[in-house]
Amino acid sequence: MSEPAIDRESMDYDVVIVGGGPSGLSAAIRLKQIDPDLGVVVLEKGSEIGAHILSGAVLDPVGLDRLIPDWREQGAPVTTGVTEDSFLFLTETGQMRIPNWPMPRFMSNHGKYIVSMGNVCRWLAERAEELGVEIFPGMSCSELVFEGDRVAGVVAGEFGREADGTPGPNYEPGMELRGKYVFLAEGVRGSLSKVAMAKYDLSAGHDPQKFGLGMKEIWEIDPAKHKPGTVVHTMGWPLGSNAGGGSFIYHAENNQIFIGFVVHLNYANPYLYPYMEFQRFKQHPAVRSLLEGGKRVAYGARAISEGGWQSIPKLTFPGGALLGCSAGLVNVPRIKGNHNAMLSGIAAAEAAAAAIAAGRAGDELVEYEADLRSGPIADDLKKVRNVKPMWSRWGMAASTVLGGFDMWTNALFGLSLFGTLSHGKTDAAATGKARDFKPIDYPKPDGVISFDRLTNVAFSFTNHEESQPCHLKLKDPTIPIRVNLPDYAEPAQRYCPAGVYEVIEGEAGPRFQINFQNCVHCKTCDIKDPSQNINWTTPQGGDGPNYPNM
Fold this sequence. Notes:
It catalyses: a ubiquinone + reduced [electron-transfer flavoprotein] = a ubiquinol + oxidized [electron-transfer flavoprotein] + H(+). The protein is of the alpha+beta class. The chain has three domains: 10-71 and 119-206 and 313-383, FAD/NAD(P)-binding domain, CATH 3.50.50; 80-116 and 209-305, D-Amino Acid Oxidase, Chain A, domain 2 (2-Layer Sandwich); 428-438 and 450-536, Alpha-Beta Plaits (2-Layer Sandwich). The chain has helices at 22-34, 62-67, 117-130, 191-199, 274-281, 285-291, 338-357, 366-372, 376-382, 387-413, 453-457, 479-488, 492-495, 524-528, and strands at residues 9-18, 40-44, 58-59, 80-81, 84-90, 95-98, 113-114, 134-137, 141-147, 150-156, 159-161, 167-172, 175-184, 211-220, 230-236, 245-251, 256-264, 295-305, 316-317, 320-322, 472-474, 501-506, 509-514, 534-536. Strands 1, 2, 8, 9, 10, 13, 19 and 20 form an eight-stranded mixed β-sheet that branches. The chain has a seven-stranded mixed β-sheet with strand order 6-5-15-16-17-14-18, with helices on one face. Strands 3-7-4 form a three-stranded antiparallel β-sheet, with no helix packed on it. The longest helix is centred in the last third of the chain and has 27 residues, at 387-413. The protein is globular and about 65 Å long. The protein starts with 8 loop residues before the first strand and ends in a 14-residue tail after the last strand. 52% of the residues are buried. The mean pLDDT is 96.
């Protein structure tokens, strides 16, 4: 028996923006810069702007320069310029510096800034509100609203369902926020973006999106070891041939460093444990010596879109558009995406403002698609498009040499001898069978430099209302034990960086348990589950991590 139709109030705007990250906020600001009379609303599922923002981050200010040229005078939290930029290859006990000079100039981090993107987004939100943008944090958007074939709005602010999904005594149905255009700026693997991509077949003719899992800790370290503006990236140990990926160490302000680890999710060995690879990395002598005497103050994790140019889907659909990481605009070799997110928000805003001024509504913003595929974002992504597929096909060493050569030919001549390489299968399909691999013996965390998952999750300040329905939906509840456990040793136990999934042995046999309260909204399960059986949906607004300055 289906649930009766829910009667909801509605509010009308010119543009409805889902997501208070760099792309959504940039779009909101640009819309009001063009026409102060436009009605613009930003809906953010986190408890505040910035609560769900996690990024490295070294920021290329090109997007900020274009959006707010006097950002320095306005006091943007973008102050720590890069002073030293190094790239290291690690062995278990040693390191080798890879020289910077063979790389094209666009790979340099000089002129860039070490930032907390959470704090940058908080500052952008203040600028947006000064311009008259309405911003509603704590408002999860649970559904798209359709009128015929077009997206006409979203349902936001639904609260009070019981664990079984039925409305509870304090149920609030939420509202329909309708717009002439709806921008989906949800970040990687957004739940509404997935719906739009499926309904309008936006990925047709494009490579599947590829992803990485990024885990990050903030440490306060000994001031004697702190070197503001220092940027270090590593590859090699501990991943070796098990997976692609690497680390970052950024010396920010206030004696803090941002230390993180990225594992490409196209790894085959289902016994790989990305979180423990991160913890093992911190035991490298060079890293451990930096952290000793310091303390960890925050932890979080987030999936990263890594497909680049080949994987950008069709960006527009009737009534709306995909922005930022919902579109997959990260430049993997540069380890940057925030600048492209901001540029996409600006481009979408300019297209929507022009359309509304011309009396249009609910159609496709083809001008936005054209701008993105021919403007600065295209220039940034096209010349590095083969580095990721090279790494996946030929490994780290070959891709470092060939990728560098390919980037040079693209930078100098605008062409590639390799053409455009395909990514091939999805990250889920890349998972191998357990019988073909051996379990990996990871060292036990020492509680000083390395930590167990649940201890670290406490430092993400994650909270979910436990009486609500589980937002991690299994399409078939039998698959984890019936298929994934015998075939893949149920990798959800390991790929989740927050300990959400467990296989618990009991008298009646193993059972699959979902501890959704731990979820840090990284979306890895939605991406990596080999059976594609897990659907990540939004929990109640305000739930999830509460990142301080990630």
